[in-house]
Design goal:
- The protein is of the alpha+beta class.
- It has two domains: about 190 residues, no CATH class; about 55 residues, no CATH class.
- Helices cover about 60% and strands about 5% of the residues.
- It contains twelve helices and six strands.
- A four-stranded antiparallel β-sheet has the order 3-4-5-6. The protein has a two-stranded parallel ribbon with strand order 1-2.
- It is globular.
- The two termini are about 30 Å apart.
């Protein structure tokens, strides 16, 4: 099968998942499809999912009876971060491999969001449900669903599954943003699976654009962002600009015209219109 055909099939499979209700969306399969669609066209998705199954089987016998949360989290941490040595890749944080589920499982290296995904998916397989928290600048996992944010247990898989308090999280925001972003309790709310996938892709887009100057990689990422949210005009604009860079003027023109038609209040719209006119002239001249 050709790489193009594999890409199309993968995109179609991912798009089908995005039509499911969030509670029915298989996060692990969607993440594996992202890896295949963006970077690894020959990736065996079932092998990736089987790897998570094997991790869960190894954990099951180590879990305490009754699944008491503190002890279950300790067992998860001892197994994943102690015995198996999963860890955050601080030495090469912006390596794209940290964002692909197959690489994280094979290398046992990741960043907060992908290590959180592994943590959640392994726990789900042993009937210990956890939720994802898209905390500013540092993805987390939580257990519980109390009436107040202080009632939940917040877990940091990037740093060995340590528990962090709400007070510590307030300090993180203050330190990281130097007072520019006030702490808000809604930062600690559970996020949907589509929101997890979107943040994974946004991370990858930033890496490809700003760290690696890889327009083709960024274009592949934006394709998948638009499968999650086809109405996102900013991503449509960016895909058009990336298509221009990578030598696909027809696609660029289609996306930029869509952006121009529906966007409002963009001070850069004259620039976009200039690109559109240049592309139209190119086609009228047969170029």
């Amino acid at each position: 099968m050709s790489a193009a055909r594999t890409h199309d099939d993968t995109a179609d499979a991912f798009a089908a998942l995005m039509r499911a209700r969030d509670e029915e969306l298989p996060l692990d399969r969607a993440a594996a499809l992202l890896a295949r669609g963006i970077a690894y066209p020959d990736l065996d998705v079932e092998r990736v999912l089987s790897g998570l199954d094997r991790l869960a089987e190894g954990l099951r016998e180590r879990l305490p009876p009754g699944r008491e949360p503190g002890r279950a989290i300790a067992a998860l941490n001892d197994y994943l971060f102690g015995e198996l040595a999963f860890r955050g890749n601080d030495a090469a944080y912006y390596d794209p491999r940290n964002s692909f589920l197959n690489d994280v499982l094979d290398r046992r290296l990741g960043i907060p969001i992908t290590l959180s995904l592994v943590y959640i998916e392994v726990a789900r397989r042993v009937d210990f449900p956890l939720a994802a928290v898209s905390f500013p600048a540092h993805f987390l996992v939580k257990h519980g669903g109390g009436n107040a944010v202080e009632d939940d247990l917040y877990i940091d898989p990037h740093h060995g599954g340590r528990l962090v308090s709400v007070a510590q999280l307030r300090e993180w925001v203050d330190q990281f943003y130097a007072g520019r972003l006030p702490f808000a309790s809604h930062y600690l709310g559970a996020v949907t699976k589509k929101q997890i996938l979107t943040r994974m892709l946004q991370n990858l887009k930033e890496i490809y654009l700003n760290r690696r100057n890889d327009a083709r990689g960024a274009l592949a990422v934006v394709d998948y962002l638009l499968l999650i949210a086809p109405w996102d005009l900013e991503q449509r604009r960016d895909r058009g600009l990336l298509a221009m860079q990578t030598g696909d003027p027809a696609r660029a023109l289609e996306d930029l015209q869509t952006y121009e038609q529906f966007v409002t209040n963009d001070p850069n719209l004259p620039v976009i219109r200039g690109y559109i006119e240049a592309l139209r002239r190119r086609f009228s001249l047969g170029g």
